[in-house]
Amino acid sequence: MTSLQRKNIVYALLLLALMAAVYFYRKNNAREQVAARPLVKISGPAMGTTYNISYIDPQRNNYQASVDSLLDLFNLALSTYIPESEISRFNRQDSITPQLPYFIPVLKRSREIYQATNGAFNPTVYPLVQAWGFGAKQGLPEREPNVDSVKQFVDFESIVIEGTTIKKTKKGVSLDFNAIAPGYGVDLVAQLLEQRGIRDYMVEIGGEVVCKGKNQRGETWLIGIDNPQYEEKGGNPIQAKIRVENMALATSGNYRKFYVKDGKRYAHTIDPISGRPVQHNLLSATVLAPDCMTADAMATAFMVMGTEKAKQYAETYQMPALLVYEQGGTLKTYVSPALQKFMVE
């Protein structure tokens, strides 16, 4: 063996030793970083679905009781499934003066999104939701409802706010905030954590999410978007992955809530303009926004619009959006220009 060959072997061994040292340093450093950022996880039922919350807290405080109390109050304001909630009482009456601080803010934001989407988002669609069997009484009616007779009660302009009182100027009009309330609930839970000094967290209720700060490993929170055809056709259960930092994300879809009758599929998303369940190839819409109330409502609006109109809206208003749709029997994904920087390959 020549002197040069011996030197090369020594250099190679030194390089391997250095690489091993770097590997073990990084591994130990990652463990120390995780240990220094204690992760608390809590979960439970909420709004007919579930919530999952993760947050970094060196004191390991458990805020589940506070979260449950907040969501119980929230339901007493906005759940149409509770007969004596404020929204249920308003739907039976001509007016109400809410005692809880949730009704008026969500009504005001609903009006703004109603106007911004030209009526694609409209919480007075509730009579149609009921008529098609997607409300408190589940199941398609034996006969299709008389849409024209029901549509007269879909009238957001007839809902007015006078001071602290909400009034309706047309009898029979009623509200349903199920397409915006879960997102608002996520925002409120996030505010609760902020008030307790938590700066790194992920709050999820029924698929609607707010992420702030970093996760336990000091990385941006990673959120998976479901493959809407996975349960039916298999394949990868995750359609896409999105990094969410200091933003909210919401997904709306028709792939879980639907009825099939006489070979025809009826989606749970009702078009407030046509008065009928939507019939198009858009399977799910995911939207990122500064707050979850907006993301939730816009995802629903996109499901009403359909693929092409939703694409146009997202591009015109530079909205981060992911649309999953079917074309020619193939599952397709559209990523708006504003969302591309958040995507994970």
Topology (elements, then pairings):
Layout: H1 3-36, E1 39-46, E2 49-56, H2 64-78, H3 86-92, E3 95-96, H4 103-116, H5 126-131, H6 147-151, E4 159-162, E5 165-168, H7 181-195, E6 201-205, E7 208-212, E8 221-226, H8 230-233, E9 238-244, E10 247-253, E11 258-261, E12 264-267, E13 282-289, H9 292-305, H10 307-316, E14 321-327, E15 330-335, E16 343-344
Antiparallel strand pairs: 1-2, 2-6, 3-5, 4-5, 6-7, 7-10, 8-9, 9-16, 10-13, 11-12, 13-14, 14-15
Helix pairs in contact: 2-7, 4-9, 7-9, 9-10
Structural overview:
The structure is a single chain. This protein is an alpha+beta fold. It has a domain at 208-344: T-fold (Roll), CATH 3.10.520.10. 36% of the residues lie in helices and 25% in strands. The protein contains 10 helices and 16 strands. The protein has helices spanning 3-36, 64-78, 86-92, 103-116, 126-131, 147-151, 181-195, 230-233, 292-305, 307-316; strands spanning 39-46, 49-56, 95-96, 159-162, 165-168, 201-205, 208-212, 221-226, 238-244, 247-253, 258-261, 264-267, 282-289, 321-327, 330-335, 343-344. The strands form 4 sheets. Strands 1-2-6-7-10-13-14-15 form an 8-stranded antiparallel sheet. The chain has a 3-stranded antiparallel sheet with strand order 3-5-4, covered by helices on one side. A hairpin with a 2-residue loop joins strand 1 (39-46) and strand 2 (49-56). Helix 2 (64-78) packs antiparallel against helix 7 (181-195), helix 7 (181-195) packs antiparallel against helix 9 (292-305) and helix 9 crosses helix 10. The radius of gyration is 25 Å and the shape is globular. Mean pLDDT is 88; it is low at 28-33.
